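I am writing to request your help with a piece of structural work I have in hand. The matter concerns a single protein, recorded as an amino acid sequence and a row of backbone structure tokens. Could you please explain, in whatever detail you think fit, how the structure tokens follow from the sequence? Thank you for your consideration; the sequence and its tokens are set out here:
>
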Amino acid sequence: MNAGIVTAHREGILTNASIMVNGQAFEEAVELARALPSLGVGLHLVLVQGFSTLPPSSAGGLVRASGEFPRSAVWAGLRYFFQRSLHDLLEREVRAQVEKFLATGLQLSHVDGHLNIHMHPTVLNLLVRIASEYGIRALRLPYEPIGLTLRASRWQWWRKLTEAAIFRALVRYARPRLEAAGIRYPDYLFGLHQSGRMTEPYLRFVLAHLPAGVTEIYTHASFLDDEARRWRPAHYESEAEVRALTSREIRRLIERQQIELIRYTDLGVAAR
């Protein structure tokens, strides 16, 4: 994944990435990010399908004895909402992940979340509350125009419609809270409903019909090795996403459409 991100930035249109602070290649990712000052870097908050920063002995019922969070996003979401005894532990874990990122010395461009867990109301309210303390100035807001993404690809249209309904409600909940806290966010996003299949034809269509304003387009661009193949969903086309981000045709389309490539740290200057 690190190699895919570096290639997509150096040879393509990628401007921003995010780090999982407990990922196996975290140290390498930090060193690569330090060598690429033009790449914006944020925190990819992990509270599901990953490992905690807190030791399991301190994380109570938040993780298994191995330190692993629940693998089911639905189960994790229900627990984080209804099990109030976990809220203090969640705050400690979120703080630990933010602090581990800040200890690298990298500038924190924004916060997003694995499986967009940062949009969970409990987690979102926590982030809003501690944002000024840690210098969190921007957050991913997954507001994806469903009509446009369905025109770009009808693949799994029933799932896309379901996701769209869920995330529209989460966005409606989040937006006024982010506004009140002065936390910036892009106007639109693509990558949620087409996750893992942000191929060149799809990207070309989206860029040709991009709405006015600031849009985040996110991918899971990476080169595959045995470890990546072990856990990547079968439908992911990660290397095709690298090719899309480094495509000369995509670059020419961006120039023709007069699209400005920015980073999360540019949001206050470029848009809001």
Q: What stands out?
A: The first strand starts at residue 16 and ends at 19. The CA atoms of residues 108 and 135 lie 8 Å apart. The beta strands are 16-19, 40-45, 111-113, 188-190, 215-217.
